[in-house]
Write a structure and sequence with these properties.
By secondary structure, the chain is α/β, with parallel strands linked by helices. The chain is 43% helix and 16% strand.
């Protein structure tokens, strides 16, 4: 089971460069972050559902191009994420 405190905000991003930037900027105290690396596979969706079931608040961030918007819509549909 993922370890995240109840009511934590977990940021969901699609772009690995955002993950790398967050790690460089925040280091080890980086807020909880899940990177789907593009379209989320079933394992990523399941992880996000488990996190939400444990009380995490999912915040979905994506590119504002057509594909990024479609990916965000998919994540919002499959999980309890907020944009």
């Amino acid at each position: 089971m993922p370890a995240t405190p109840a009511s934590s905000v977990v940021h969901v991003v699609e772009n690995p460069s955002i993950l790398a930037l967050a790690l460089r900027r925040f280091g080890s105290p980086c807020p909880p972050l899940v990177c789907t690396s593009g379209w989320p596979n079933s394992a990523a969706v399941q992880l996000l559902r488990i996190l939400a079931d444990q009380g995490a608040v999912l915040r979905c961030h994506g590119d504002f191009d057509d594909e990024g918007i479609r990916i965000a819509a998919y994540v919002l549909e499959k999980t309890r994420a907020d944009p």
